Amino acid sequence: MKATPTATERETILIVDDTPANLDILVGMLRGAYRLRVATDGQGALELAAAVSPDLILLDIMMPGLDGFAACRRLKAEQDLRDVPAIFVSALAETRQKVRALAEGGADYVTKPFQPEEVEARVATHLRLRRLQRELEEHNAHLEGLVRERTRDLLKANEEVTCWPGPDDLPDFTTRSAGDTEASVVAQELY
Length: 191
Prior knowledge:
There is one protein chain. By secondary structure, this protein is an alpha/beta fold. The chain has a domain at 12-131: Rossmann fold (3-Layer(aba) Sandwich), CATH 3.40.50. Helix content is 52%, strand content 13%. The protein contains six helices and five strands, in the order βαβαβαβαβαα. The protein has helices at 20-30, 42-52, 68-76, 95-103, 116-162, 178-190, and strands at residues 12-16, 35-39, 56-60, 86-90, 108-111. It has a five-stranded parallel β-sheet, sandwiched between helices. Helix 2 runs parallel beside helix 3. It is rod-shaped.
């Protein structure tokens, strides 16, 4: 059995639906495992998402004013929100609606009426993928820092090597002085 995370460890899910009954169902399914925030229209979703930086968004398609497709496009246009997975939730079950939802930036699509096990599994999967994505980004940033550090070290070492004396600066050992000749003769006599 999985332990319930503390409130500070829980991921935040933004649920967006204009139908109170649907909100109640989704909140009932996910309460306790996640921090939940609720918006009842597309514009409210944009404002709340900017304020709370959710880890995942459940987004209805058919809403008055700014529909789910438009809301998703605008969310994905925001630098801080573009990587937040949006799962569309809708009574629209046609393939073309599902394809459009994915084309608009959605990560997944769940049809109404909701099946609790399916919703919970999809939410858990996309949150896990988001955590892994963040870990990968952090690891890449760490590796990039190491590469920059090693590059600086190599450039510094290269500067030191290029400052060493060149062949023209070394003594010429091909010409012998009188002392060198005398030392050579002594060495030969010893052996």
